[in-house]
Structures are given as structure tokens and as C-alpha cells.
């Protein structure tokens, strides 16, 4: 696809209790030129009202679910929300769907079996509800799910992946599907301090087999995946340094075939404040 979009992935937008704070942050990103805001839809049957609040409170910036799980949300409810958003804000809401992780899904008693088949069933239900494929993307990691994203959606939104995965995903998706990886970053030039912040983030994700199995496909070993990850793995997954050094890490994903990169600024686990200065510095480099 002939585009290069710089977007934002930030848990703040769902985590803050204040709609006004979320809208103010979204407006700042809109003014900086970011293309879209991604954040989790959580684990309820309906999409959170925050998606609609941001659409109504901004003028141009796109809003996307990254992700709504196929185990918790109702296809009928999700389709109705997406269609209403499209009617009122044409082209601005993108539905990101995914199979999530067994440890998260089974925590509420749901049996996490055959996630690929569950995703196919969910897409069938969206089709039956009249939701067009171009209004949705899949959180695809492995080849089979990437091919499903190619065949049944507008594209893929991978998470926690190195640039090598972006290249593979582009090859599998072909040239005409959206490829929008999430990339977490740390704006900190000191290696020890930056990796410490990065490891607060990687520690949890490296307990999830969906991610570790995917990383093993690219040659990462148990030594790399133990604990919060080796230096080599952390550096490959999480660009860190000055704004221009971080921008170089983002550029690797564009060079590998990404149409859009959704940047998540890590700020030491703080989900209550928005890292405005970091996003302004990155916008100056990338937009």
C-alpha cells in the first residue's frame, strides 16, 4: 500500500477514568499529525464507550481497537458499533480483532480452544451482520492467521514483534493489505536505564506462549526469552535512545514493509499520565 502512517498505541486511553483527559491527549496527537490511536478494548461484551468519546471529541484522527477479543465481545454488538461509527465518522474507526491469550481468556472460565477456528466463526458472524471486511483487521502473528487477515480483513495489526516479523507479514499479506505493527519504545539514551524500563514491559509478554512461540520462529532461543529477555532481544523489540535513535528503530519496520507503525511510549509502567513530550519529539522526527 502506498502510504506511511505514524500512529499511537497507548494504554492510557482506556486506563484513564477521565474522558476529558483522554480527549485532550487525542487532540494533542491529532495536532501533531499522528494518523491513528490504538488501544485495548478490554474484556467486556461491548466495545468501551471511550472509542466513541474520542471519535466525537476529535476531528480527523483515526481510532482503532487494539484489540477486541473474539472470546469476549459479541459480533452483533461490535458490528453495530462499527457501522454507527462509520456513519457518523466516515473512515475514522477501525475494528482490531484478536484471539488474545489462553491465560487471559481462561481466567474467566472460557475454554481457550482452537483460536483460529474461533476467529473464523467470529468473522463469519460479522459477515452475516453486514460488516464489510475493510472495516476490520486481525492481530495476526503466525502465517496461518496472517493469511486469514489477508483473505478476510483489511490487514494485520501485529504486536510485540521485531522488524523481521514485519517483513514476513508483508510477504504473506501481499501489497494490498494494511500492515500496522505496534512498536514499544523508550526515550532514554542511557542503556541501563532504557533496558530497565523496557524489561518492565517485556517481562509480562514473555510469559505468553503466543509471543514466545512467534519469536522462536525467528531464531530467538530460551536464553533470549528467559525472564524479561536478553539485551539482544530487548534491543530488537524495543527501540530506545534519543528521539532520532528511536525513530531509526521505527524506520526499520517501514523499511520491512509496514504501512503504519503504532508507537507505544513506555514510561515506567505509569498509565495515569500521558507522555506528551515524548510523542511530540517523535513526531518531529517521523511525521
Gross morphology is: globular
Using the 3D structure, state the CATH architecture.
Answer: Alpha-Beta Barrel
Percentage of residues assigned to helices:
40-55%
**Stretches with pLDDT under 50, minimum 5 residues:** none
Q: What's the domain count?
A: 1
Task: Give the arrangement of secondary structure elements.
Layout lengths: L4 E5 L2 H4 L3 H14 L3 E4 L9 H9 L4 E4 L2 E2 L5 H14 L4 E6 L3 H4 L9 H14 L7 E3 L4 H10 L2 E2 L6 H11 L4 E2 L2 E6 L3 H15 L3 H8 L5 H4 L5 H7 L2 E2 L1 H13 L4 E6 L10 H11 L1
Parallel strand pairs: 1-2, 1-11, 2-3, 3-5, 4-5, 5-6, 7-8, 9-10, 9-11
Keywords:
single chain; 287 residues; alpha/beta; TIM Barrel; two-stranded parallel ribbon; 14 helices
Q: How would you summarize this macromolecular structure in one to three sentences?
A:
With 287 residues, the chain is an alpha/beta fold. 48% of the residues lie in helices and 15% in strands. Helix 4 (75-88) links the parallel strand 4 and strand 5.
Amino acid at each position: 500500500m502506498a502510504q506511511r502512517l505514524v500512529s499511537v498505541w497507548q494504554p492510557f486511553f482506556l486506563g484513564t477514568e477521565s474522558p476529558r483527559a483522554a480527549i485532550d491527549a487525542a487532540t494533542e496527537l491529532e495536532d501533531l499529525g499522528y494518523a491513528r490511536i490504538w488501544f485495548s478494548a478490554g474484556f467486556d461484551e461491548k466495545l468501551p464507550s471511550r472509542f466513541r468519546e474520542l471519535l466525537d471529541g476529535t476531528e480527523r484522527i483515526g481510532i482503532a481497537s487494539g484489540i477486541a477479543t473474539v472470546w469476549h465481545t459479541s459480533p452483533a454488538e461490535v458490528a453495530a458499533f462499527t457501522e454507527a461509527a462509520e456513519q457518523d465518522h466516515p473512515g475514522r474507526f477501525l475494528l482490531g480483532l484478536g484471539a488474545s491469550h489462553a491465560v487471559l481468556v481462561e481466567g474467566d472460565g472460557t475454554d481457550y480452544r482452537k483460536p483460529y477456528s474461533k476467529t473464523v466463526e467470529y468473522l463469519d458472524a460479522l459477515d452475516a451482520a453486514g460488516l464489510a471486511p475493510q472495516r476490520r483487521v486481525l492481530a495476526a502473528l503466525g502465517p496461518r492467521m496472517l493469511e486469514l487477515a489477508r483473505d478476510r480483513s483489511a490487514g494485520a495489526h501485529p504486536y510485540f514483534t521485531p522488524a523481521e516479523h514485519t517483513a514476513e507479514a508483508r510477504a504473506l499479506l501481499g501489497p494490498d493489505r494494511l500492515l500496522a505493527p505496534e512498536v514499544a519504545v523508550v526515550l532514554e539514551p542511557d542503556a541501563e536505564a532504557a533496558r530497565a524500563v523496557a524489561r518492565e514491559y517485556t517481562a509480562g509478554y514473555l510469559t505468553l506462549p503466543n509471543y514466545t512461540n512467534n519469536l522462536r520462529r525467528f531464531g530467538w532461543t530460551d536464553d533470549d526469552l528467559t525472564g524479561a529477555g536478553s539485551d539482544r532481544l530487548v534491543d530488537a523489540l524495543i527501540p530506545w535512545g534519543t528521539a532520532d535513535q528511536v525513530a531509526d528503530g521505527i524506520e526499520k519496520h517501514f523499511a520491512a514493509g509496514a504501512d503504519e507503525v503504532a508507537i507505544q511510549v513506555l514510561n515506567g509502567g505509569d498509565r495515569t499520565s500521558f507522555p506528551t513530550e515524548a510523542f511530540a519529539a517523535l513526531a518531529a522526527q517521523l511525521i
